[in-house]
From TrEMBL:
Family affiliation: Belongs to the glycosyl hydrolase 7 (cellulase C) family.
Highest taxon listed in the record's lineage: Eukaryota
Protein name, as recorded: Glucanase
Residues covered by region (Disordered): 397-432
Annotated source species: Penicillium chermesinum
Lineage: Eukaryota, Fungi, Dikarya, Ascomycota, Pezizomycotina
Top EC group: hydrolase
Length: 452
């Protein structure tokens, strides 16, 4: 996923340990979800926590910012080790600072709130632990309202193979952990994180020339990523991204690959994935305002993870998608691309799609669905976010990508947006009131989370 952090200040640690500040109390907003069986669904008491990269980072001895805009305070943070000693990660004011509100089973994420742009949240099992979902031979369902997401925005719901405790077990001196949203990783091996593995990412930090709140450091954080839902009111994509090692690992410099490095395919993860975007697959009437799946109204999104032998211990063999809207079950659109058949993601589809679009098959090089299966087997953390794209205007989701390509070339057109509509300066100034609402999260055996 092409994701980056946006905020005034960010995260922290002591040497290989992230410290928690005490100036603002950390109170997680509650969020109910449902565990389902063949006989019905029962409420589960959950909560959400904002990613550490959005948080206020200040001196342990007071309230001096360790990070402001997209630069570090060089006196507090001259290097990774010293910065980790000097700075602390504090609690968050979810609604007033970040525009995050919850009511029952519903989570609303606002786009622009004061100086803050977007946010990234994790579902918690308890105050100190992320909820870990084992998805093999299961289905995951949620409701979403994308009616207020224009071109260039991405209201995303996805899974990553990050540590459920935020890295505390691996780095025992970590004083912040999952309670403060630490430990993020994904298949882009993001280098915009302020701390990775309990260490600061100050060394080699280069402030972004286009994003006043972001930059990149020498280190990145890699892990398998399953993008169940990347969408706005124009387009949607479902994309698994395997890694050679499913669980979180730290990488260095351009060897990380992904969006944040000069060599996209240098790393141990697949930054492209094997995607199913109905528009990209040739169906231009399926998803959008007034279309078969009408983005002007709330919808239910069901994703099923089938295994090779139909058991929980089998290998991931297929990812299926369907929708429920206005009481009607809607099958995913079928591919209308020559040489590519079906309406789900499986090995045959992925190989055929890469060939039809002339894309490098990085998905297969990193193990495809078999490698992705390891992340699902081990358990993955649920992430919900809203963001804009300083790297490519979100063209890979809702416009032409590459932006110099012709829409008539198979695979180039991803949606109806212009290649400049998603420019962050444009969407932040013209659509600051945008938001996404996720609700009614359900998880259980195949066929247990929705009514047909």
């Amino acid at each position: 996923m092409h994701q980056q952090a946006f905020l005034l200040s960010a995260i922290i640690a002591a040497v290989r340990a992230q410290q928690a500040g005490t100036l603002t109390a950390e109170n997680h907003p509650s969020l109910t979800w449902q565990q389902c069986t063949s006989s019905g669904c029962t409420d589960q008491a959950g909560e959400v926590v904002i990613d550490a990269n959005w948080r206020w980072l200040h001196s342990t001895s007071g309230s001096t910012n360790c990070y402001t805009g997209n630069t570090w305070d060089t006196s507090l943070c001259p290097n990774d080790e010293t910065c980790a000693k000097n700075c602390a990660l504090d609690g968050a004011n979810y609604q007033s600072t970040y525009g995050i509100t919850t009511t029952g089973d519903s989570l609303s994420i606002d786009f622009v709130t004061g100086a803050n742009i977007g946010s990234r949240l994790f579902l918690m099992e308890d105050e100190n632990t992320y909820k870990s979902f084992k998805l093999l031979n299961r289905e995951f369902t949620f409701d979403v309202d994308v009616s207020n997401l224009p071109c260039g925005l991405n209201g995303a719901l996805y899974f990553v193979s990050m540590d459920a405790d935020g890295g505390v077990a691996k780095y025992p001196a970590n004083k912040a952990g999952a309670k403060y949203g630490t430990g993020y990783c994904d298949s882009q091996c993001p280098r915009d994180l302020k701390f990775i593995n309990g260490e600061a990412n100050v060394d080699g930090w280069v402030p972004s020339t286009s994003d006043r709140n972001a930059g990149i450091g020498n280190h990145g954080s890699c892990c398998a990523e399953l993008d169940i839902w990347e969408a706005n009111s124009i387009s949607t994509a479902l994309t698994p991204h395997p890694c050679d090692t499913a669980t979180q690992t730290m990488c260095e410099g351009d060897n990380c690959g992904g969006t944040y490095s000069s060599s996209r395919y240098a790393g141990t993860c697949d930054p492209d994935g094997c995607d199913f975007n109905p528009y990209r697959m040739g169906n231009k009437t399926f998803f959008g305002p007034g279309k078969i799946v009408d983005t002007k109204s709330k919808m239910t999104v069901v994703t099923q993870f089938l295994t090779s032998d139909g058991t929980d211990s089998g290998t991931l063999s297929e990812i299926r998608r369907l929708y429920v809207q206005n009481g009607k079950v809607i099958a995913n659109s079928a591919s209308d691309i020559s040489g590519v058949s079906g309406n789900s993601i499986n090995a045959k589809y992925c190989t055929a799609q890469k060939k039809a679009f002339g894309d490098q098959d990085i998905f297969a090089q990193h193990g495809g669905l078999s490698a992705m299966s390891k992340g699902l087997e081990a358990g993955m953390v649920l992430v919900m976010s809203l963001w804009d794209d300083h790297h490519s205007n979100m063209n890979w989701l809702d416009s032409n990508d590459p932006d110099t390509g012709s829409a008539s070339t198979p695979g180039v057109a991803r949606g109806t947006c212009s290649t400049t509509a998603g420019d962050p300066q444009t969407v932040e100034s013209q659509s600051p009131g945008s938001n996404v609402v996720f609700s009614a999260i359900k998880f259980g055996p195949i066929g247990s989370t929705y009514s047909s």
